[in-house]
């Protein structure tokens, strides 16, 4: 397939090999190329029933060291100060953390990455992955948060995206000013939240 053949977005569902000048891209995933053959922009997504499965993505900079951010994400004491007050469980890799409304298996635990899989909780969350990637830049640590592998895009995702934003700001406030707002003291986004 020549680069001139791809003028507008095209979805490929089978294993493909595309050549753009000197670049060769192989993927068994679905690929959506936005206008143009120069590969300026590409978006990878999984497809199920014809719908792209979106992820919740957030980024927040925290004036703190990666070590302190990691501790806030990987200890029950840390988690209790910014997300859920009564956090309990085993925070080691392979362990289960109990957040009251949901249980998470610790899938990956590295100084720059914490990853959980939801094993109990809201039906929309079951099997989803939550990842906190840490990147130190100058005088701050960026948390790149992803809540991935939703089965389908539903209205509840809007709620969860907003709540994750408030909790990530709670994480920032806890580390910068010792003023986190964990649930049940979190920012409310609707009546009876």
- Write the CATH homologous superfamily of the largest domain: START domain
Strand order in the largest sheet: 8-14-13-12-11-10-9
What percentage of the residues does DSSP assign to strands (E)?
A: 35-45%
Uncertain runs are 1-49
Second rung of CATH, namely the architecture of the largest domain: 2-Layer Sandwich
Largest sheet: 7 strands, antiparallel
Helix percentage range:
10-25%
Specify the number of helices.
Answer: 3
In CATH, what is the class of the largest domain?
Alpha Beta
In N-to-C order, the SSE pattern is EEEEEEEEHHEEEEEEH
Distance between the termini: 52 Å
Counting structural domains, the number is 2
**Which of globular, elongated, flat, extended, rod-shaped describes the shape?**
globular
Summing up helix and strand content along with how strands pair, one would put the structural category as alpha+beta
- Could you tell me the CATH topology label of the largest domain: Alpha-D-Glucose-1,6-Bisphosphate, Chain A, domain 4
Radius of gyration equals: 19 Å
Give the averaged pLDDT, no decimals: 81
User: What is the number of E strands?
Assistant: 14
Explain this structure to me?
With 193 residues, the chain is of the alpha+beta class. The chain folds into 2 domains: 3-47, no CATH class; 53-177, START domain (Alpha-D-Glucose-1,6-Bisphosphate, Chain A, domain 4, 2-Layer Sandwich), CATH 3.30.530. It contains 3 helices and 14 strands. The protein has helices at 66-74, 76-82, 155-177; strands spanning 11-12, 16-20, 23-27, 30-33, 42-45, 47-48, 51-52, 56-62, 88-89, 96-98, 103-110, 113-120, 129-137, 140-148. Residues 1-49 have low confidence and may be disordered.
């Amino acid at each position: 397939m020549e680069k001139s053949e791809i003028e507008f977005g095209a979805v490929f569902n089978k294993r493909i090999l595309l050549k753009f000048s000197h670049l060769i891209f192989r993927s068994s995933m679905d690929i959506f190329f936005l206008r143009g053959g120069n590969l300026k922009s590409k978006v990878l997504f999984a497809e199920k029933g014809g719908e792209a499965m979106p992820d919740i993505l957030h980024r927040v900079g925290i004036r703190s060291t990666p070590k302190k951010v990691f501790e806030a994400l990987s200890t029950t004491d840390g988690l209790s100060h910014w997300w859920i007050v009564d956090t309990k469980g085993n925070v080691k890799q392979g362990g289960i953390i109990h957040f009251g409304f949901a249980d998470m298996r610790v899938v990956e635990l590295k100084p720059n990455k914490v990853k959980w899989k939801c094993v109990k909780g809201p039906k929309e969350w079951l099997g989803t992955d939550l990842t906190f990637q840490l990147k130190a830049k100058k005088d701050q640590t960026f948390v790149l948060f992803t809540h991935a592998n939703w089965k389908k895009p539903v209205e509840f995702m809007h709620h969860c995206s907003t709540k994750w934003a408030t909790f990530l700001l709670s994480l920032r406030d806890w580390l910068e000013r010792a003023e986190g707002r964990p649930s049940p003291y979190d920012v409310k986004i609707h009546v009876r939240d």
